[in-house]
């Protein structure tokens, strides 16, 4: 497998965690979203992913983009350890939380949007994340155990940790979100989350390395 990734991309990080949990070895092709006006806009990368976004994963003879689609494929082809609970209600809750982050928070504070916003980009990102986290904290009151849904790591957790890292980058006050904070801390102690961390990637700049 070959993963087209950017060290700081939260969507790429989700997939790196899934690959680590599933024990899938892979090669990384770094795609620098800032260099040369954004390497994702090159003709070479557009041939890999027409949406010109990371991540993209070449695996089993196909090329997949969109982090949740990639994680679903890994779940269906490499079911252990499972990232979706067997219980239909818990499974729906996992998908709900994953979508809440992957559709409702991350896209409206990502690099492409922030470029359009301009000078007020930090304030914009803070507002997007805060409103999303207010809702998420409320949801987690009903679903959380040790992790987002019960006591098993799920797809929801793969979305949570990168989003908290984004929040910290944009100096969001995390005090109002004790459940999110607790779960994030527990997840960052797991090896799969450590090895996939942005501070430990092949393309991580020297000054940001762990």
From TrEMBL:
<feature type="domain" description="GST N-terminal">
    <location>
        <begin position="1"/>
        <end position="82"/>
    </location>
</feature>
<dbReference type="GO" id="GO:0004364">
    <property type="term" value="F:glutathione transferase activity"/>
</dbReference>
<feature type="domain" description="GST C-terminal">
    <location>
        <begin position="87"/>
        <end position="206"/>
    </location>
</feature>
<dbReference type="InterPro" id="IPR036282">
    <property type="entry name" value="Glutathione-S-Trfase_C_sf"/>
</dbReference>
<dbReference type="InterPro" id="IPR004046">
    <property type="entry name" value="GST_C"/>
</dbReference>
<dbReference type="GO" id="GO:0006749">
    <property type="term" value="P:glutathione metabolic process"/>
</dbReference>
<dbReference type="Pfam" id="PF14497">
    <property type="entry name" value="GST_C_3"/>
</dbReference>
<dbReference type="InterPro" id="IPR034330">
    <property type="entry name" value="GST_Zeta_C"/>
</dbReference>
<dbReference type="InterPro" id="IPR005955">
    <property type="entry name" value="GST_Zeta"/>
</dbReference>
<keyword id="KW-0585">Phenylalanine catabolism</keyword>
<dbReference type="InterPro" id="IPR010987">
    <property type="entry name" value="Glutathione-S-Trfase_C-like"/>
</dbReference>
<keyword id="KW-0413">Isomerase</keyword>
<comment type="pathway">
    <text>Amino-acid degradation; L-phenylalanine degradation; acetoacetate and fumarate from L-phenylalanine: step 5/6.</text>
</comment>
<dbReference type="GO" id="GO:0006559">
    <property type="term" value="P:L-phenylalanine catabolic process"/>
</dbReference>
<keyword id="KW-0963">Cytoplasm</keyword>
<keyword id="KW-0808">Transferase</keyword>
<protein>
    <recommendedName>
        <fullName>Maleylacetoacetate isomerase</fullName>
        <ecNumber>2.5.1.18</ecNumber>
        <ecNumber>5.2.1.2</ecNumber>
    </recommendedName>
</protein>
<dbReference type="GO" id="GO:0005739">
    <property type="term" value="C:mitochondrion"/>
</dbReference>
<dbReference type="Pfam" id="PF13409">
    <property type="entry name" value="GST_N_2"/>
</dbReference>
<dbReference type="GO" id="GO:0006572">
    <property type="term" value="P:L-tyrosine catabolic process"/>
</dbReference>
<dbReference type="InterPro" id="IPR034333">
    <property type="entry name" value="GST_Zeta_N"/>
</dbReference>
<dbReference type="GO" id="GO:0016034">
    <property type="term" value="F:maleylacetoacetate isomerase activity"/>
</dbReference>
<keyword id="KW-0828">Tyrosine catabolism</keyword>
<dbReference type="InterPro" id="IPR036249">
    <property type="entry name" value="Thioredoxin-like_sf"/>
</dbReference>
<comment type="similarity">
    <text>Belongs to the GST superfamily. Zeta family.</text>
</comment>
<dbReference type="InterPro" id="IPR040079">
    <property type="entry name" value="Glutathione_S-Trfase"/>
</dbReference>
<dbReference type="InterPro" id="IPR004045">
    <property type="entry name" value="Glutathione_S-Trfase_N"/>
</dbReference>
